[in-house]
Amino acid sequence: WPRMRERIPSSRFVTSCWLPNFELVFRKPGVDGSAKADIRFTGLARHVVYGVLYRISAREQAQLDAIEGGYHQASVITQRGDDTLRAFTYIASQPLEAPFAPFEWYLELIAAGARAHELPDSYLSFLEQVVAVPDPDPSRHARNRPQTPFQNLARPRTRGV
Predict the structure, then answer these.
(1) 39-56 burial, b if ≥16 CB within 10 A, otherwise e?
(2) How far apart are CA 69 and CA 130, in angstroms?
(3) What's the pLDDT tens digit per position in 67-107?
(4) Cα(98)–Cα(26) distance, rounded to whole angstroms?
(5) pLDDT tens readout for residues 23-49
(6) d(CA 12, CA 52)
(7) Are 110 and 127 in contact (CB under 8 A)?
(8) Which strands sit side by side in the sheet containing 12-20, from one edge to the other?
(9) Which residues pair with 39 in a beta bridge?
(10) What is the pTM of this model?
């Protein structure tokens, strides 16, 4: 949430939700040489990607598109309980065939967001299984790492999605 607000000041949290029949994979090459997150349609009921919907102003849409370089917008139908919600997300424009490793700070950011928005423990457990590598640039790691250490993100919560 703090990173989203810093990048897109108009962003407002709408709800947590999930995207059925998709899986989270790390197969988009980042300019820093690490893997970035992507979602892939599988059509399999066992695959679900959890996330958060934000509302942003139309004037900041181009700014978000620029930040999400190497991705293209895709329209999706998400779920929240029995409700369906139309949204857009970003999907890697030229993903690699096989997943590869994200930097530790990047995975920590994803997990911190999942934790802050009380996404399911099973999703946090999935994130804990992703193999991440140290960033060879310590200053980039320091700039991007969330305040909450990744290893502390899996503690039990009182409610889930």
Answers:
(1) bbeeeeeebbbbbbbbeb
(2) 23
(3) 899 999 999 999 999 999 999 999 999 999 998 999 999 99
(4) 8
(5) 999 999 999 999 999 999 999 999 999
(6) 10
(7) yes
(8) 48-55, 12-20, 71-80, 83-92
(9) 24
(10) 0.84
